């Protein structure tokens, strides 16, 4: 008596092989990118860094230093 349904004692080994192959494929694929939470944290960090950099560059000491450097370079050429 044969049927198209697998025998119960054969189902478990077949499932184990399928699961092992699937798990190996998942492990081999790795992570392709960031998740939404990681994007949010990365965006906030980038904005914070940009704000700090903006404050540093537009601060008086940087502008004064750059002006003195340019004046010195132009005076050397004259």
Short description:
With 78 residues, the protein is mostly helical. It has 3 helices and no strands.
What's the pLDDT, averaged over the residues?
A: 81
Percentage of residues in DSSP E strands:
under 5%
Q: With helices defined by DSSP (H or I, 4 residues minimum), what is the helix count? A: 3
Spans of at least 5 consecutive residues with low confidence: none
Main sheet overview: none
Structural class: mainly alpha
Q: How many strand segments?
A: 0
Q: What level of helicity do the residues show?
A: over 70%
- Assembly level: single chain
Shape: rod-shaped
First CA to last CA: what distance? 105 Å
Order of helices and strands: HHH
The radius of gyration is 32 Å
Highlighted features:
3 helices; 78 residues; single chain; mainly alpha
Structural description of this entry:
The protein has 78 residues and is an all-alpha fold. Helix content is 79%, strand content 0%. The longest helix is centred in the N-terminal third of the chain and has 22 residues, at 8-29. The mean pLDDT is 81.
What are the SSEs and their pairings?
Layout: H1 8-29, H2 36-57, H3 60-77
């Amino acid at each position: 008596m044969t049927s198209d349904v697998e025998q119960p004692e054969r189902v478990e080994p077949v499932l184990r092989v399928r699961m092992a192959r699937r798990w190996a494929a998942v492990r081999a694929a790795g992570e392709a990118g960031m998740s939404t939470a990681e994007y949010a944290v990365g965006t906030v960090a980038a904005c914070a860094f940009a704000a700090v950099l903006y404050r540093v560059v537009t601060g008086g000491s940087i502008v004064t230093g750059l002006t003195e450097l340019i004046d010195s370079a132009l005076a050397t050429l004259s």
